[in-house]
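Sharing a chain and its predicted structure for anyone who wants a worked example. Both blocks are below, sequence first, tokens second.
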Amino acid sequence: MTATTPIGVGRPARPASWPAMVGALTAQELRLAARRGENLLAQFVIPVGALIVLSALDVGGSSAGARGVDHALPASIALAVIAAALVSLGIATGYERSYGVLKRLGGSPAGTSVLVAAKTLGVVVVEAIQVVLLVAIAVVLLGWSPGPGANALLVGAGLVLGTVAFAGLGLLLAGTLRAEATLALANLLFVLALALGGIAVPLDRLPPALAAVAGALPPAALVQVLYAGLTGTGDASAALAVLAGWAVGLVVLAAWRFRWD
């Protein structure tokens, strides 16, 4: 008699497909994010506070008819992206790596590309809620309305590229530095973006040399793209190219350099 092998026994299990792994890890990221209530609160409160304060101070207003809210809304959306994709994601991932949480994932078929994609998608969901909230507050409380030449596709492109760029930067820090160093550097970059990224102070009010340097960095490029898309004024092609370059470079570098422990 010849022994038969039960179906499936002795055959190595096939790893899930790349999209399936990304989807499963993204769902896990969202569950973990929901448990970090204090982080979510900060991610929503800070941009909303920036929107109200910048509008009240009329930052970005001009005699040409622009109102403070016209600058405050894209600036606060950019701030929300930076807070979620760089600060929160970078710090949380840095401590996950420090505590050994990511070691098992490193030994699985899911590589660093799955980790980067899933964490970025998780951030996108949080940002979508942030943007809806900020736009609703701007419309209902501050009387904002999009300009006649507003471009939703441009706004969407800016949000996607900005998220990828800052998530790539956050994961690059988290995957190469100690958790404490990631915490300090992410917060420092957040403050620098607020001060020199065209958020608290528009680029045209900075010294020319400083404005030129700031304009080549992702925070100011994101603000410029969002401003052009929401108001329908200005040419954002150069800023969009800058943002795309940073997005591609940072996400590739993050996936390449990420260390599991």
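Comments welcome. The chain has one domain: 21-27+37-257.
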